[in-house]
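Write out the 3D structure for:
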Amino acid sequence: MQRWLVWNVLFPLHEWAKGHPSFRILKEMEAADRLPAAELAALRDRKLRQLIDYGYAHVPYVQRIMREAGLTPADIQGPADLRRLPLMRKADVRRHRAELRSQIAGKLTSFSTGGSTGEPLLYDLPKERIASWIACRQRVMRWWGLSAGDKEYAIWGSPVEVTRQDRIRNLRDKLLATQLLSAFEMNEPTMDRYLRLLLKGDCRTIISYPSSIYLLAMHARKRGIDLRETGVKVIFVTGEVLFPHQREVVQETLNCPVANGYGGRDSGFICHECPRGSMHIMADATVVEILDPHGNPVPDGELGEIVITDLYSREVPFIRYATGDVGALASGHCACGRALPLIDKIQGRTTDFVVAPDGTILHALSVIYIVRELDGVEQFRIRQKKVDHLHVQLVRNDRFRPENEGRIREGLRKRLHANVDVTIEYLPVLPPERSGKYRHVISDVSIETALAKPVSTGR
């Protein structure tokens, strides 16, 4: 009854009151899911042309970059033509924030990224783009047989609510059958409380950072608590790279699938995993390019920087926005029958890789396993400060043995094929970033030079 009430009454009323055309967009998206590949591509191209037409007419930033490139809207007919426009980077969004706003824009909402690796990014989003994110999320939930109204816990980067406005938001969440659980304080008392909530057996889905739900699953194992009969149908994860060991532990502990997603407030809802295990690009909502360091497209299966053009961002257009993330496109089609194109790999930010002294790029997993497999390590973070200096932060328990320090140093040096300096720091708790996320590997070393060389991406 509650699910019916939320889906048919409360959620539509909420979106209408917020001025979000979410249900209109959801209807469009679900229609796009049924299109054959050629018609889906035609729909994408038509939306792209509409975005460019609008931007050229009403957005000073788009007018300027197109005129500087000697282009008119007629020159942009499809994704391949976008390469005639410059990339938009975070610095451009900061520098041209006012110029990016449409001259006839409706009400805009200000957002910011966490700024975990530097200055926070401040930007504006129109209601249609926010609604497209909401619609995409409902679209994916319905792929998995769920929808708004199914009881949900969100383990997310938000502090505990205390203000009057936050109390109102809590009431709204209660009506919509969702509850926010802060990812900022994943300590033992907090995680004990989260486990008690799950044991009530009324939760149908969890949305979380991969690291947060993994920590909770590991804590349940430590406590000897069985979560396999809690009734959770699927766990949606996003915001960080999902590592295979995290997926395995979470799926076994909660006895349900983990569905991976990729996107961000600034970059939009880019792709999501379907029940058949494929990562589908929301091609009716975003154009995805995978580029090498020179800005050229790479073949399917090869890694490059993910660049997006959001098709629902007319009033503040993000056109050829360089995400700073690394991924690869996939060829072929999914057995689920949807014609939405596929992403083969999403391997995190360029700063999630380690660069060896010889220029080889090492994926985070290649160094993560060195520390993760050691007994007595509860949490860790590896930071590459220089090409020959790694700093390892550890949270240990009483099973940690002193000789593990030598194993960490030896393992990292062997992996990097160099006698790099490795410092180890012990902490009582590993704090998350300002966003509430955890990153196992952070590199301060640019990989752009290494990406330009014909070397492998891992040994």
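The first strand starts at residue 108 and ends at 112.
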